[in-house]
Amino acid sequence: QLHSDQDKGDGSLKYILSGDGAGTLFIIDEKTGDIHATRRIDREEKAFYTLRAQAINRRTLRPVEPESEFVIKIHDINDNEPTFPEEVYTASVPEMSVVGTSVVQVTATDADDPSYGNSARVIYSILQGQPYFSVEPETGIIRTALPNMNRENREQYQVVIQAKDMGGQMGGLSGTTTVNITLTDVNDNPPRFPQSTIHLRIPESSPVGTAIGSVKATDADTGQNAEVEYRIIDGDGTDMFDIVTQKDTQEGIITVRKPLDYETRRLYTLKVEAENTHVDPRFYYLGPFKDTTIVKISVEDVDEAPVFSRSSYLFEVHEDIELGTIIGTVMARDPDSASSPIRFSLDRHTDLDRIFNIHSGNGSIYTSKPLDREISQWHNLSVIAAEINNPKDTARVPVYVRILDVNDNAPQFAVFYDTFVCENARAGQLIQTISAVDKDDPLGGQKFFFSLAAVNPNFTVQDNEDNTARILTRRNGFSRHEISTYLLPVVISDNDYPIQSSTGTLTIRVCACDSRGNMQSCNAEALLLPAGLSTGALVAILLCIIILLVIVVLFGALKRQRKKEPLILSKEDIRDNIVSYNDEGGGEEDTQAFDIGTLRNPAAIEDKKLRRDIMPETLFVPRRTPSAPDNTDVRDFINQRLKEHDTDPSAPPYDSLATYAYEGNDSIAESLSSLESGTTEGDQNYDYLREWGPRFNKLAEMYGGGESDKDTS
After folding, report:
1. Which GO cellular component terms are attached (predicted)?
2. In a 10 Å sphere around its CB, with 0-12 CB exposed, 13-18 middle and 19+ buried, how is residue 241 labelled?
3. Which pLDDT belongs to residue 671?
């Protein structure tokens, strides 16, 4: 209430009010000065208001006193309950956690004045979630309250937390929130086989790699804590079967390792072990984290009639299976009480090449064309199941067929190699490094072996054991005038089963190189005209060539006019032709005088020369004789050539003499040279020459006669 000292109570004064909320929230009685609130005031909206009041003369409207200012302060009452920023919280904590493990902290706020009483003092309590969890009253931290909480028993918990003001006393206001707590998994459960003995059956005609069936150990954990590795640890069929862990389904797929024979053996027993791959050391005391089961496999013919019931199927099959082999079976059943029979078919839009087919009665999918992983590794099929009584009632299921690789491609050269060898190359010199490629993709990676198809006197191959090999020379020096190109067959083999190999041929050119081994020319030396010859020089060369051609033509015409005349005129006219050469040879070190390789390599002879004792009337095409192998003795070679001359129909019936200047292999009697005999003391005894046969009789008489003459003298 406002009151002026000038107010005598006669109603001559009038009170007016201005400032925050004047006229709306606050009104004043202009006669008495009483101030009233027009509605309920909320401190949380505004804690105080500043107003100004003044008394004026009602008639003159002039102030009778100066304007005065005053503040109206709103005292707080507990009219706001604590509130949480989130209605629902989500949190997680590992299972098997110790008591007191922190889960999450929740915080509530109170709009009341914290400096006035306990209106804003909040205390937390748990309304739902005991005895599993607890909450700290002052901080709102939620902690585990029970030890060894097992996710496999219960995974989800709902906890209700209450926040109450007034320090939690009676009459305080409260608010609640919900916390959904999930127990996360740890590896505290070992894998367990649901059965101690598992029976499987397989036809004896199943090829190697066929999947017989699967075993699966259940693990109550999830994620990587439930990952299991399968292996065969014992049994009488360890060499006949393999087991592969299927990562996506955590199953052990048992496959055929060797061909089966029903008449030989009908039953195999395997001991299969399943073990966790990620073991937590904190829970070793709960172990061991592995389990075993016995798998009995019966070898026999079994006709299955399966139906599909899963959302999708995955089949794996080797690419070398025979046509008509069943790769898998989809199963379907009629949920109706009538249990109508099911008819299966393939959606041909998903198998345009008609590689697969399906048995309409039992859902067996089999191959109708050969498989090739190198062409297509995956086939995505769609199987349609329809009731026979109601074909319109159909269902579809995707079937994924994965083609497994087998070694059916031979390795080949990775690229085409342009190989050359220098004429001045030395033995053991590297001339080429080769590598190979293979279309197959074995699990263990590619491994190739290199070797020569046959022993080669000029080159050899050295395997680097890293899928490459080196081509090395085996001798010093090559001549492109003798042989300009060598063909070297190289055998390349892989390491998979079954082993595949191929033979690639390297073409090695003989080239002229500089001192550093850089190639300069690979062609046999030919007369090349310099690029800068003048026109006059070209005309002179052309005239020389024309003159030579004219001389050759004239010489040929003269020879045609000459009468054919044999070299031997009659049987009585037998004479020896002596040709003298006054050239001194280079001795035994003169390897350029005669190339004995011509005798040992008949293929090097360009063409068979015609007889020169007469001029033949008709030119016969020379016959190419088969080449003699490198180890053929020269005596056999000479006998073969003699036989060919005797049976040659193109030669006239005249005797001819073919001389081969080759002394042959080392003599068992060593050297007969008089040069060497001079180094020995005393006389030589040549009686042993008579024991060598009739070919040495003349020689024995010459040497034996000399000794007799000497004795006589």
Report:
1. adherens junction; catenin complex
2. buried
3. 54
